[in-house]
């Protein structure tokens, strides 16, 4: 049976080890992406599909924000049926940039 | 005697306490500003005038970068005669965003 996922091939991921510090900072320097990261941090891994976040942006903008988060090593995605599920790469990101995620998660939105 | 400084009135500064985390991250998410911050971190306070940094940008761009750094609570400026001198607000910024400066200073340029 072909994959009936509504997404095309799962997009490329970048491991935090390969992320320059400027890229990590720029990814987090945006209120929508900070909100996505905070919601992911507050939920269990793989419990959030891309459509389930409380952010005031459309689908195309959301897709762009996830591209930036993947490229910064912040988010891992996996398709399950029609849903694309998300996980914050907290441990790997913390190993690469100690304290950075904690800093933005401590702040209020 | 009037002030013969080549600068106009010293521009406004923002204290790190009043800086949102997005603003701090965006200020540091730029290779030229990171280089300015690294050079300031490596030098004594007030030893660097605005024209003394090793960055490949013109005067107008440099002025913009310093505006961003002041607004993020990263840099304090003071005029001495014709020179505008700079200081990294390391302690105040560290108090507001613990570990963030250390993170970017550890990274290679």
Classified by CATH, the class of chain A is Mainly Alpha
Number of β-strand runs of chain A? 3
Radius of gyration of chain A: 14 Å
Oligomeric status of the shown chains? homodimer
Number of helical stretches of at least 4 residues of chain A = 5
Total domain count of chain A: 1
Q: What portion of residues of chain A belong to β-strands?
A: 5-15%
Overall residue-averaged pLDDT value of chain A:
90
Q: Name the chain pair with the biggest interface and residue counts per chain.
A: A-B, 18 and 18 residues
Architecture (CATH level 2) name of chain A:
Orthogonal Bundle
Please, what is the CATH homologous superfamily of chain A? Answer: Winged helix-like DNA-binding domain superfamily/Winged helix DNA-binding domain
**Annotated CATH topology of chain A:** Arc Repressor Mutant, subunit A
The SS-based structural class of chain A is alpha+beta
Biggest sheet record of chain A: 3 strands, antiparallel
Low-confidence regions of chain A: none
Query: What is the topology, as strand order, of the major beta sheet of chain A?
Result: 1-3-2
Keywords (chains A, B): DNA-binding, Transcription, Transcription regulation
GO molecular function (chains A, B): DNA binding; DNA-binding transcription factor activity
Protein name (chains A, B): Transcriptional regulator
InterPro entries (chains A, B): ArsR-like_HTH, HTH_ArsR_DNA-bd_dom, HTH_MetalResp_TranReg, WH-like_DNA-bd_sf, WH_DNA-bd_sf
